[in-house]
Amino acid sequence: MSSREEILQNVRRAIHVQYEMPDLTELESISQKFPDKVQKFCDVMKAAGGNTVILKEGEDVNEVIRRLYPDLKRVASNLKEITCATFNPDEVQTPAELDGTDLAIVKGVVGVAETAAVWLTQDMKERALYFISERLIILLDKEKLVDNMHDGYKHIDTGDYGFGLFMSGPSKTADIEQALVFGAHGPREVTVILY
Fold first, then answer.
1. Which of 2, 114, 122, 149 holds its CA 20 to 30 A away from the CA of 71?
2. Three-state DSSP state, 141
3. CA distance 108 to 193
4. Alpha carbons 13 and 44: distance in angstroms, whole number
5. What angle do CA 22, 25, 31 make, to 5 degrees?
6. How far apart are CA 168 and CA 50, in angstroms?
7. pTM as predicted
8. Does domain 35-194 have CATH number 1.20.140.10?
9. Could you give phi then psi for residue 40, rounded to 5 degrees?
10. Residue 52 and residue 190: Cα distance in Å, rounded?
């Protein structure tokens, strides 16, 4: 038995009272709704330090990406529709080989207008790509935007790899002197392309 399993077993033995999930229907009924989810998402993403691009009718996503990032050399994506990628992250042998990735392009499952958070389900071999790339583009169907986290949680799944996360804007942290640093724990720049 691994130390992780041993710890979890000890925790389970120590829990004597289990509580059922509370009924959140009342909270959900008063949760905030937005008349224009796309605009709210864009506004909150900007406030979080990220970017949003709305793909126009007939516009090629690969051309938009090349226009946004014309000089990037190492672009990762395993999405079939992305032809501007220079390598497939599923073909690396170790996560360390992802180091130096200028841009990763992934697909979001659901976006939350209230927080500009996008649920990402691991759909590649190495989840390190979400955090190690300097920039991240998330492709998201604008029909998959919901108002709030109550609605967002109804759509999450961890997929085949058993991992998923909500991401809202670039990674940032501030120290006690209030010096804000981008990219400390993840990408320095996050752009959501709504199609």
1. 122
2. coil
3. 10
4. 43
5. 115
6. 8
7. 0.85
8. no
9. -60, -45
10. 9
pLDDT tens for the chain, 195 residues: list them. 788 888 988 888 888 888 888 887 887 778 889 999 999 999 999 999 999 999 999 999 999 999 999 999 999 999 999 999 999 999 999 999 999 999 999 999 999 999 999 999 998 999 999 999 999 999 999 999 999 998 998 989 887 888 999 999 888 777 777 787 777 788 999 999 999
Task: Please give the Cα distance from 187 to 6 (Å, whole number).
Answer: 34
Helix ranges (DSSP H) in the chain: 3-14, 25-30, 37-47, 61-68, 129-132, 149-153
Gap between the Cα atoms of 79 and 99, Å rounded: 20
Tokens of 62: 């690969």
| Residue ranges per structural domain of the chain | 35-194
